[in-house]
Amino acid sequence: MTYCCGLRLKDGLVFISDTRTNAGVDHISVFKKLFSFGVEGERFIVIQTSGNLATTQAVIGHLKNHLALDQKPHLYSVNTMFEVAELIGHTLKRVIADVTTDPDEESNYYCNLLVGGQIKGSAMQLYHIYPQGNFICATSDTPYFQIGESKYGKPILDRALSYDMPLDEAFRCSLISFDSTLRSNVSVGMPLDSLVYRKDSLHIPLGKRIYSEDPYFEHISKQWSDALRRGLQNLPKPTDDYWL
Amino acid sequence: MTYCCGLRLKDGLVFISDTRTNAGVDHISVFKKLFSFGVEGERFIVIQTSGNLATTQAVIGHLKNHLALDQKPHLYSVNTMFEVAELIGHTLKRVIADVTTDPDEESNYYCNLLVGGQIKGSAMQLYHIYPQGNFICATSDTPYFQIGESKYGKPILDRALSYDMPLDEAFRCSLISFDSTLRSNVSVGMPLDSLVYRKDSLHIPLGKRIYSEDPYFEHISKQWSDALRRGLQNLPKPTDDYWL
């Protein structure tokens, strides 16, 4: 399985993806699921992938190939993030159609993508692109999207995340969402790939790969567990009528 | 959907179930999914249900009918909790076979059950009974089972619950697991039915129905949200290399 989470907040974008793929429990590998593109000072684009690995690799492969051969439209020729999402949606649709057009077979090749970024002169955007090639756009009401094994990590985002939150706090919130998922589901695995983009910087961040022994991640994971246990102990005892 | 959670701990058993059923988003009802049986001073049995409502009601109906007509074997005639689980598993298997024996159809009528309790002279047990009628048993390594929409509420159980935990703390942990699920998934809904059984008491608890305006539940839900937000704010900031 996979877990990817993308946030579009007032001050910027946050992306975290795991790297575990599995074809059965005895065929586990590490594959990158977070890809960044861009032209320094002009545009920055991130794609996060979940689902059929051959499909997602083909989508990324086609996008890169068009860039390499300057076959327009490509990621650096389109004018807006909306057109970026359309281009990627069409690419995804075509990749699946190349494998099968049988409606009963199609879903075996499905993938979901998160696409975020900013192009000079327009606002940051974050899209969730469906296997059918259509997509939805994050808003201040719903500032995050998840793909893959999303349920374990959703409660902390629903409870603590807000559009106006400082970027570093949102990043920690997102890391905790991953920590919760990693503990409860073995199909999501370290290392994680993370990227933080500051609004209007048009700078392409290097990002950081977080390994299982990463001291910062280990530290906040432990501190978070302690905070939860303490929080639980501090909750008032149930009243007597709960015990009759 | 449904969320039910059962704990078998050193000091007793804890059961919480939601009450929402849905056949499509426009057909939502309240149905009890936690049923208790017993003979004061002799045996105490709880059944929690998820899945096809006609199936679960038929299982409970047959079990009650056999008790009413004293048709043995029934819940008060068998000798051990293992035999209770076998009886319920067989009943479930028969109920599904009465509707269909077509393997392609069967899964439409599936349900999962948690069965816990104690019979005088033997240890408390907690079983997860599968649609096929077979079952697994909770242990001190794995002291809890969930059925239904279980993923949202699993991280807090995985992080904070332990076999040796005091019953009241485990009860709060379980309530928080429900609060997290209720916030992230509308197919799980209030009121909740809860029951706490103290080891070797052989007392049949009344249990408590927790409505959405329940002051204790509201209080711990708010206090928990505050604790999480504070915990998140107190986590150290990421080091600079996360931001390049």
Automatic annotation (TrEMBL), chains A, B:
Organism phylogeny: Bacteria, Pseudomonadati, Pseudomonadota, Gammaproteobacteria, Moraxellales
GO biological process: proteolysis involved in protein catabolic process
SUPFAM superfamilies per the UniProt record, alphabetical: N-terminal nucleophile aminohydrolases (Ntn hydrolases) (SSF56235)
Pfam family, one: Proteasome
Cited Gene3D superfamilies: Glutamine Phosphoribosylpyrophosphate, subunit 1, domain 1
CDD domains, per the entry: proteasome_beta_bacterial
Any single GO CC term annotated in Swiss-Prot or TrEMBL for this entry: proteasome core complex
Protein name: Peptidase
Record-linked InterPro entries: Ntn_hydrolases_N (IPR029055), Proteasome_sua/b (IPR001353), UCP009120_prtse (IPR016545)
